[in-house]
Model the fold of this input.
Amino acid sequence: MSFCSLYPALLVTSPWSCSENHLGSCRKQLMFCVSRRKARRGAWTGVSCSAETRTVVIGLAADSGCGKSTFMRRLTSVLGGVAEPPRGCNAYSNTLVGDATTVICLDDYHALDREERKEKGVTALDPKANNFDLMYEQVRALKSGVAVEKPVYNHVTGRLDPPELIRPPNILFIEGLHPLFDPRIRSLLDLSIYLDISNEVKFAWKIQRDMAERGESLESIKASIKARKSDFDMYIDPQKQYADVIIEVLPTRLIPDKGATEVLRVRLVMKEGVKHFTPVYLFDEGSTISWTPCGGKLSCSYPGIRFFYGPDTYFCDEASVLEMDGKFDRLDELIYVESHLSNLSTKYYGEVTQQMLKHADFPGSNDGTGLLQTIIGLKIRQLCEQIIAGDSSHGLKRKQLRRCLRLSPV
Amino acid sequence: MSFCSLYPALLVTSPWSCSENHLGSCRKQLMFCVSRRKARRGAWTGVSCSAETRTVVIGLAADSGCGKSTFMRRLTSVLGGVAEPPRGCNAYSNTLVGDATTVICLDDYHALDREERKEKGVTALDPKANNFDLMYEQVRALKSGVAVEKPVYNHVTGRLDPPELIRPPNILFIEGLHPLFDPRIRSLLDLSIYLDISNEVKFAWKIQRDMAERGESLESIKASIKARKSDFDMYIDPQKQYADVIIEVLPTRLIPDKGATEVLRVRLVMKEGVKHFTPVYLFDEGSTISWTPCGGKLSCSYPGIRFFYGPDTYFCDEASVLEMDGKFDRLDELIYVESHLSNLSTKYYGEVTQQMLKHADFPGSNDGTGLLQTIIGLKIRQLCEQIIAGDSSHGLKRKQLRRCLRLSPV
Done:
C-alpha cells in the first residue's frame, strides 16, 4: 500500500513555486517531489507520493514569546539530534529539521501579510489572518506520508516568501498560535500540547526581552500586550481546553510576595485516557502528594523546592498534575528527584537528569520549565514508538519503526 | 554475674507486707521473693535476687482520661499476649502483666492518699503527692533484674492497699502522670513516650465519658477540667520536652469548622538520635511530604484522609513527624498505606494492618491514634530486641533474647 494525494494549488495563498535553492536541497528527495515544471504550472502542486510511512503529528500551541523555541530544542534533542533550518532553503525559513523531527511554524499559514493585516485592522492572532484550509490539507498530507510545498512567512519583511518543500518526517511538530483552533486539524494530532504562560510571567519575560535587550519602554511593552490581549483571550487561550497536555508557567508560591516571577511554579497537566500517553506520577499513582525534597539529598537555597502531584480536572476532563515550584541549586542532584518519578518513559536510569545536564545552558534548565519539557520529550518519544509499533503490526514497514526506535539509546 | 540489691522499707509509704493471696500468686517466683517473715519484720524488704536479666524500661506519660489504657492494650498485644492484672492479687491492682511485659501505674506511688491530698489542698498531679524516691529505687531495681514489692493505690478507696510483688519483666512500662518528671527516673528509661491530647480533644473525650456514661453535668465537667489545669500545665505538660516519642492528638484540619474533634489529626513526633529507635518515614526519608491517599486504592468518605511526613524540631531537638488526619473507611485497605511507610520494624509484610484488624474493636482503630500506637508497639519490640541483643553480646544470657524474640512471628 502507498499513500498518494493531490492538493489543489488554489488553497495556497503564498507564491507557489520552488526556488532553485529550494529544489536543490530537495534533490535527494525526488521521490517525494513533483517536478518544478509541474509546480510552475500551478494547477496541482504540493503533491507527491511517498513510500509507506506514517508521520506522528504533535501540535504545540502557545502565544509568541512563550519559550516555544527552547521547548522545541529540548524536544528535538530527546527525539534525535539537533533541529536546524532546512539546508539551502530560504534563510528566513521558520522550519526546523532534525534527524527524525520536523517542526513547522504555523505563522507560515498567514493568509494576510503584515500590510494586509494592518489595512484590515486584524492581528495575526485573528483566525481571519490565517489559512486553516491549507494548514489542514498540508498537515493531513504530511501525516499520510506525502511531502508538501509549504508557504513561508518572512518575519522580517512581513510577507510570504516562496514555499519550501517539507518531507514527511517521523514526527511532525506544528507549533504556533493556532494548532488546536480548527477541529479538522485537531483530529489529525496524535498529541496536543498547550504552553500556558500566566500573565504575570509573560509580562516579566517580555520586559526582560524587549526592555533589557531591545531597549523598548515599559509603556510601549504594556501597550503592545494590551493590544493583543483581546484577540489572545478570544482565539488563542480557549484552545487549551482541547490539549492533551498543558504546561502552565506561574509565579511561585514559595515566596510570600504574590506574583513573584523570579522563581517559577510549573504545572504539567496530563489528561487521562490519551492513547500512548501514560501520565507521569510522583511516589504513588492516583494519590495527592506534596513533596519538599530539600534536605540531605538535595541542595536547596531559598525559597527551596516543592513538588506537587495529584488528580485534577481540566475543563471537563480528568487529568493528573505534576507541579514543580522552585529552582535547583545543583542539576546533578536531579537524579534524586527523578528516582521518585514514575512513568517517565526513560530508556535508562537517570535519562532525565542526563538530558537536563546536556542542555544546562538552555533557559529554564534549573526549574520546572526545563524539567517538565524534558519529560514531555521522553513521553513523545515513547508515543511515537508505540504508534509506529502499532501501525507496523497493521502492515507498515518495520523500517520506520527501527528508525524511530534508533533515536534513543537503549 | 547476678544482680542482687536491697531496698530499705522506709522508702515505702504504703503498708508493706505481702498478703496471703499475694504471696500465693508469687509462689512460682520464689527465687525473686523474700520470705513473708522477713517482709513482716519491716527492716529490709522489696528485696530479691534474680538470675541474670535486663529489663527494658519504657515510660509513658499522659494525663488521666487520655486513652493510656487502650494504648497499653495495643502495645502489650504487639509485644506478646494479653496484659491482665496479676492473678490472685489485690482486685484493685493497677498492674497489668503480659507474656513479656509488665505495666505499672505510677498512681501506686502516691505519697498522699485522697484524704491527705484533700487536707493539704494538693492534687494528685502535684509532685508533693508522689513518692519519687521510691519510684526511682523500684524502677532501678526492676531494670537491674530485681523484683520489688510495689505499693498499690486503690482508686476506689483512695488509699494505699498492701503492696504487690513485681517481678522484672522483659519490658517494663511505667505509665502515669509523672514518669518523666524526675531526672533520676528519666535516666533509667530506654524510651520515653508522651501522649499529648489537645485541650479540645480532651474536653470532647471527657464530655463523652463523664456526661454520656456517668451522667455528669457539662458545668461540673468544665469545673473539674479547670481545677486541674494549673497543676497540669505546671507539672505534667512540661514533661513532654523530655520524651523521645510524642503522640499528639488534635482536632482535624480536614473540616473547615475549627476545632472539630469527631475526626482526629494524630501526630507522631519521633526525636532523632534515640538509640535503637529509627523514625518511621513516608515515601522518602528526610523529605517533607503531604499525602492524600484517597482514590482508587483507598476508600475515603468525607472528609477524607491526609498524611504528612517531614522533619521538624521539638523544643530544641530535631525530630521526624508522621501525621495522619482523618478516618479509614475500611481497615483491610490499610495495607496500601502501610506499603508506603518505611522503618516500621515489622516482621512481615502487612503486620501493622494485621494488628489493626486484630483489634478493630479498640477505640481509635479507624484513625491515627490506633495506627500510630500500633506502629510504636512494633518499634518498641524492635528496641527491646536490639537492647537485649546488645546486652547479650556483653555477657547476658541468650535465653532472655530468645524469649524476647520469640514474641513476634518471623
